[in-house]
Amino acid sequence: MLELRSITAGYARNAPVVRDVSLTVAPGESVGLLGPSGCGKSTLARVAALLHRPDSGTLLLDGEPVRRWRHRAPREKRTAFGVVFQQARLSADPRLPLTDLIAEPLRATGRGDEVPGRIAELAPVVGLTSDLLTRRPHEVSDGQLQRACLARALVLRPRLLVCDEMTAMLDASTAAALVAAVEDYRAATGAALLAVGHDRTLLRRWCDRTVAWDSLI
Ligand SMILES: Nc1ncnc2c1ncn2[C@@H]1O[C@H](COP(=O)(O)OP(=O)(O)OP(=O)(O)O)[C@@H](O)[C@H]1O
Known about the structure:
InterPro entries: AAA+_ATPase, ABC_transp_ATP-bind, ABC_transporter-like_ATP-bd, P-loop_NTPase
Organism: Streptomyces paradoxus
CATH architecture of one domain: 3-Layer(aba) Sandwich
Largest sheet: 5 strands, parallel
Bound molecules: adenosine-5'-triphosphate
Family: Belongs to the ABC transporter superfamily.
Pfam family, one: ABC_tran
Protein name: Peptide/nickel transport system ATP-binding protein
């Protein structure tokens, strides 16, 4: 269970871009957060995934208040989340072949021995063939790179997925494939989802419930 209570967050002192917003994602639930460009959805998503410390408010994970964000957050809390961003190229180390990009969270948590097994399981789930896995980001398309970023988000088997405009840069068939991969993962594991975007049709089809940004403020 993820609960955001009265979250205020931003990037400059006394200039919040998110003001007093509350949102709950129940275990296994999928919630779509809809809003226009620039309203603060991504900022709230980053707070929810422990990547951005709010100025005020409380975030509860399974009823327990989170007190530390980013690298200071306890590992078991950080690894509860898998996050996929809109711009795969900004979130991928350009030096890493896709296989190492997907494996990053395993190596960072001392679970390097699981890499071959997890890559073999995840590559077909996200639709990456073995020839693509050895290429670096500049040698693959945006859609192929986003497939790898989704695999990276799934590699530690998170309980909560945060997809921030995951499909916004993709063609319709790649978008559908990635949404299907997320839903297969959720069906198999019971993971919850916070999907952020501005595409009402997509989020309404994808999620159990959609919340309009305007209704939160
Ligand atoms: N790193 C940053 N530093 C300063 N301001 C930022 C930063 N990131 C975002 N902002 C500002 O915060 C506001 C909210 O941005 P945010 O990315 O959360 O909106 P969004 O609703 O996700 O927009 P979009 O749908 O266009 O991605 C915007 O005015 C943006 O310019």
